[in-house]
Amino acid sequence: MDMAQAFALASGALVATNLASILIAGKRLKATGFPPPDLRKKPPVSIVIPVRGIENFTAETLSRAFRLSWPNYELLFCVAHGNDPVIAEIERTAAEHPSVASRILVGDDRISANPKLNNCVKGWQAARHDWVVLADSNVLMPEDYVQHLMGGWRSDSGLVCSTPLGSRPDGFWAEVECTFLNTQQARWQYAGEALGLGFAQGKSMLWYKPMLDANGGIHALNAEIAEDAASTKLVNRLGLEVHLVSSPFEQPLGRRTGHDIWSRQCRWSRLRRVTFPGFFTPEILLGVLPPLFLALIAVALGYGTLPVAVPLVLAGIYLPELALAFAKGWRLSRWSVPAMIVRDLMLPAIWLRAWLGGTIDWRGNTMTIGTTACELEEAPAGP
Fold first, then answer.
1. CA angle (110, 115, 117) in 5-degree steps
2. Main subcellular localization, coarse class (predicted)?
């Protein structure tokens, strides 16, 4: 085999890997709106929601949380500061749904450099029930939200969670974020879980409280800068698995800017790099650029032609991705392919940026991420 053929085969291998991940994820995933499993037992559930400030869809996401079909649940809203404007919005929504048990808990327990985890501590401690969901405030909960989470619990589960599914984009950059969240990140996370490599995702996490309390409680999740990374490692140490719901929950996006996308993706990328470097390193091979680059080298060395190689790579990467979104009822528009291309152009730069230290902003908290996990520390951004 000459060098040209080797480069062509390497390009084909990356395209085939991309296709395999989509096929595996597609088999594992249910379409949006698919009903959850029919559960015989419906134990009471506590839902802990850390909140900060007013977001694009705060009124709707709060309203959804109060309209779940689960027979017995409580909502624990955790706020770090008593002057946060979101408190008035929670009180207004709670008054409209007096039949749902809810509390607002104010305070900041500094147990880690993770402001979200710090905010959740009081909610975890106040939870009345054995089953506890840690849910981000921007999750758009369907009525059967708890059914999906409880239905994902298996005999070997230590945690059930959901990736965020980007929806309702306003503008091109929000379309780009949809392609990051949906057919890129959610696809790979579901493919990994199907292969026994389940990773926690902090947007919605269902815990059996006695199990976590017996292993350090919520304080154990400060072992890593990201609580979902710490959750994954803790569950795996116990010989259990992280499982995903059958269909991920929506996160409505609204308007986004290029800077928003860059900042958020760089933050997540750097957190993955310091918590799971072995899994993060191969991410440089994701997207269309690596197989396209290898195909172009093969053409330059005399194997194949440019008019054939380039369309084959583009079709091999993007057509399966579009098919997955269509089959599962995920966001698709005339901007989807341009957004995928822009995303893939960003991927190598985001990957390279992840290896550099520096500060990130995490919902108003300035944090420093060094070149290794042990250099993580928090620098408060102010009140």
1. 80
2. membrane
- CA–CA separation, 7 and 360 (whole Å): 38
Q: How far apart are CA 140 and CA 166, in angstroms?
A: 10
44 vs 129: CA distance, rounded Å: 6
Beta bridge partners of residue 48, listed in sequence order: 76, 134
Burial environment of residue 363 by CB neighbours within 10 A (0 to 12, 13 to 18, 19 or more): middle
What integer pLDDT is reported at residue 379 of this predicted model?
40
Domain locations in the chain? 3-25+275-362, 36-256
* Class of domain 36-256 as given by CATH: alpha beta
For residue 378, the surrounding DSSP H or E stretch is: strand 377-379
Whole-number Å distance between alpha carbons of 96 and 63: 9
Q: Among the residues of 139-285, which ranges form H helices?
A: 145-151, 172-179, 187-194, 209-213, 227-237, 258-275, 277-280
Q: Would you state the structure tokens that stand for residue 367, as one six-digit string?
A: 């944090």
Straight-line distance from the first to the last Cα atom of the chain, in angstroms, rounded to the nearest whole number: 64
Largest CA distance in the chain: 73
DSSP run (H or E) holding 289: helix 289-300
pLDDT of residue 168: 96
Are 12 and 126 in contact by the 8 Å Cβ rule? The answer is no
pLDDT value, residue 56: 86
